[in-house]
Amino acid sequence: MAPKHMDRLTSVDTSFLAHERAGSHMHIGSIMLFEGPSPAYEDVVGHIDSRLHLVPRYRQKLRVPRLELGRPFWVDDPRFNITYHVRHTALPPPGSLEQLRNLAGRIFSQRLDRSKPLWELWLVEGLEDGRFALINKVHHSLVDGVSGVDLTTVLFDLEPVPREVSPEPWIPQVEPSSAAIVARAVTDVAAIPLDLAGQAWRAAQNPGGTLRRLREVAEGVGEVAWSAVNRAPTSPLNVGIGTHRQVRWVNTELADLKAIKDELGGTVNDVFLTIVSGALGRWLRARGVPTAGLELRGAVPVSIRAEDERGQLGNRITIMLGPLPVYCEDPVRRLQLVTAEMRGLKESKQALGAEAISSVEEFTPPTIFAQASRLHFSTRMYNLLVTNVPGPQFPLYLLGHEIEQLVPVAFLAPDNALAIAIMSYNGRVAIGLIGDFEALADIDELVLDVEESIAELLAAAGGRSEEASPSPSGAQPSGANGAGTPA
Known about the structure:
six-stranded mixed beta sheet, alpha+beta
C-alpha cells in the first residue's frame, strides 16, 4: 500500500528515532556481493529510479511537529535527488574483503541526514576476482526487516534478464507548512478519545473474548515488567559506545544448520542462538570474565504484523528476551537449554505483553512518549541484539549479475557494543557482526569463536551435511576465510 501524504509514524518507528543518541545509529542494512564486473553507475541509478515508485516512502522525509505535538510525519521531499542517495566508490587494489569490511564500517559509522529520505545505497567497484558490491543502509524507522518491503525487494529480479517495470512520473505533494503540521498533529491528538471509544464499543460486543484477551495481556505485561525490573547481567558488551563501527561476517551453509537441528533437536533459530552463546562464552573466558552460572539475554525481534498488513511499510515488531547460556561449554547440552527456554518463551505471554505496550504507546501523550519508548526498548533488559532474518532460497539478480552473498548488518542500541544478525540466502548463511570500534577492538577473536562454535555443533551432529557445498565464489563455509581475514 502506498503511503499517504503526511502519514504519521507508528509508535515503534518513533521509538527508533528517540533512541538515536549516545553514539547509537538506528540504521540497518546489508552488504551484497555480486559476480562479474560492475554495471555502469548511470545504469544502476536508472534501474533504481525506474522502480522507486514501488516504494514511495523512499522519496519521503521526516517532519516533526513543533513542541512535540504528536509523532513525526512522512512528507514528500520536493528536493529529492536520487544521486545523493545512490553513491559510487571503488576499492584500491587488491580490493580485498578486508578493505570491503573497513569501508562498510565507515559507512555504518555515519548517521543518516534527517533532513532527507533516510537511506543510502553504495555501488562499490574494484573487488578482487572482478566482482562488485552494494552496501545498503536504511533507517530502522523507514522499514523493518520482517515486513519484507524495502528498496532491495523491488530492485532485484528472479532471472538474469530484468523484468519490465513501467516507470511512473513522480510529482511530489507540496510540502506542508509548519502550521499545517501542527494542525494535523492537534487533530490526531483530538481523535484519541474517539479511537478509544471505538475500541471500547467493539470490546462490549464480545465481553467473553475481551475478558480472556485482557487476562492474557495483563499476564504478558507482567512478564515484560518483570524482565525490565530484573536487569540483564553485567558484561563487557554493555558499556558506553562511540559512533565508530566495524563490520565482520562468517559464512556457513543452511543445510549444515538444518542438519544440526535435525540431529540434535530444536529449530534453526535455536541453533543460531546456541552458536552465539558458545562464541560469547569462549570470548568472555578469554577475556578473563567468569561465566559459571552466567546467562546473557539476547533481544530477539518478533513480528506482530497481521496477515492483512503484509506489504505495508512501517515497523510492526516487538522484542522477546532469548536465552544465551554462555556458562554451558557442552554444545549439545547448550542447544537443549536454548531449545527448552525458547519453547517456554513462545508459550508465554511475553510477546503479547510487549505488543500491548506498543498499542498503548499509540495513545501516549506526545510529551512523555520518548520516555515510554525507552522503557519499552530499555537496553537494561538485554545484553545484545540477536536477530534471524530468513532470506530467499533462490538466486537474485541485478541487471543480469547474480548476488553471490548477502550479509545482514544490524544496529547497536545505546550501551550495546555488539549486535549479531543471521541471514540465509540461496542455501548459504551469513552471520553478520557489527561492533563498536573501541569497545570491541578484539572483534576478530569473536569471529573465530563463532566459527569454532559452528564447528563443534557440526561435529556433535555427525559432521557436515551432504547438501553443503562451496559457494560459487569458491569461499568455503565456516573458517574458510582464514583467521586473519574473517569474512
